[in-house]
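Q: What changes when pyridoxal-5'-phosphate is included in the input?
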Amino acid sequence: MQEDESDLTGTTPRRRPKNAVREVGGRRLQPATLMMGHGFDPALSEGSLKPPIFLTSTFVFENAAAGKRFFEGVTGKRPGGAEGLVYSRFNGPNQEILEDRLSLWEDAEDALTFSSGMSAIATLLLTFVQPGDVIVHSGPLYAATETLIGRVLGRFGVQWLDFPAGAEQAQIEEVLGRAKAMGRVPLIYLESPANPTNALVDVEAVAAARAAVFGDERPPIAIDNTFLGPLWAKPLEQGADLSIYSLTKYAGGHSDLVAGGVVGAKALLDPIRMMRNTIGTITDPNTAWMLLRSLETLELRMTRAGENAAKVCAFLRDHPKVESVGYLGFLQDGGDARQADIYRRHCTGAGSTFSLYLKGGEKEAFAFLDSLKIAHLAVSLGGTETLASAPAAMTHLSVPEARKQALGITDNLVRISIGVEDPDDLIADFAQALDSIR
Ligand SMILES: *Cc1c(COP(=O)(O)O)cnc(C)c1O
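A: The predicted holo structure follows.
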C-alpha cells in the first residue's frame, strides 16, 4: 500500500495514483495508451487490475482536521475542488479516474462529468448566466439546448442572439456587438457540426470576433463537441475554452448509458464544479465505470465507424434513388468552399453521422427505414450499431414548418449514424432498403 504522507496540519492529502506515467523514453504517451491505466493505482484497491465500482454515498475522514480541509475545497474556500473524497454528490473514485482520462483526449487541464449531456449543459449555463445577460450562440442547436436557453432561462430574464453556424467573422462580430449593446454577454455557446444541417462553426473566426468586440474582457467560448469529439475535432486548439460532450454518444459508444462531460481550463471548470456540487448533476459511479471501459476502445470504435461511413457514403452518393448525401467527407470534393476551409482547419475526420436525402418524400423515407434489416430504426448516434431515423417525423416533429425548411429538415431526410459492423454488410442492407422503395 502507498504510504500516507501527512502534511504539517496532520491531514491526509489525496492519495494520488502512483502510476501516473505520461512519458516513456522521452516519448509523450497518446490517449489510446493512457486509457488503460491513467488515474488508477491498483495498490489502492487490493491490487485489482480494474477499478472497482465504489458504491457508497459517503467517505470516512481520517480525522476531523482532514474533514475540515476537504470541505474547504468542496465549498470553494480553497480553489481546485476537494482534496479528498467527501460525499458522492461531490465526487468519487470512479468519476475522478474518468475525468482524468477524459481530459487527455483534448489535452485539457481538467474535466467534469455529469448525469447526461443536458445536465452538463444546464450546469454550465447556470454557472455563468444571470438575469439581463445575453447569451450569443450559433444556430441551430440541439433542440433541448435551444429550449433550455430560450424558454427555461428566458423565464429568468436571460436573453439570446444567434448567428448561423457557418457565419464569417464579420457577421459574428456584428451579432456580438448587438448583444453587447443589449446587456452583459456571459458566454458564447457553439455547436459544431450543427444537427441536422452538418454546418461547421468556424471557432477561429468566433475567437477573433470575440477579441475584436470584447478586447480583454472575454466571455468564455463553450462548444458542444458531441458529433466529432474527441477524435475528429479538438476545438480547444482553435480557441474554444470549454468543450462539451454528450458522453451518451461516441464516448459511451454502446447505446447503453446516458452521461455528459465538460473539458477545459481549471479556472473555468472550478465554478462549474461548485454548481454541480450544489445541484447534484454528477455521473453515478456505475455509469462512470462503464465509461472507463468505453474509453479504452474509443479510438478503435471511432476509427472503424469513420471508415465504414466513408464506404457507405461513397455507395449512397451515386445511387439512383438518392437525391444527395450530407456528409462532411464530401466537403473537399467541391461545393461549399467556406465549409471546406473550416473542415480543413478544424477536423481530422468526417465522423460517421450524416444526412441522406432520398428522392421523394415521407412515403419513400418510411419505406426505406421500414426495410432496413441491420440498421436499427432509432434516434441517437455514436453507438457500435448503425441507427437510422427520420428527423422531420421524429426528433424535429415539433419544429415549425418554416424553420424546418430553413434547416433542410425535409420529409425525405434520413439521419444515419454508422456503427462498427462489417461495411459491406451495411452496404448490402442499404442497397436492399433502397431497392424496396417503389
Ligand atoms: C444527444 C446530444 C445532447 C444531449 O445529450 P444527452 O446525453 O442526451 O443529455 C446534446 N448535444 C448534442 C449535439 C447531442 O447529440
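Observations recorded in class: The pocket of pyridoxal-5'-phosphate is lined by residues 116-118, 142, 191, 195, 224, 226-227, 246, 248-249, 258, 260 (CB under 6 Å).
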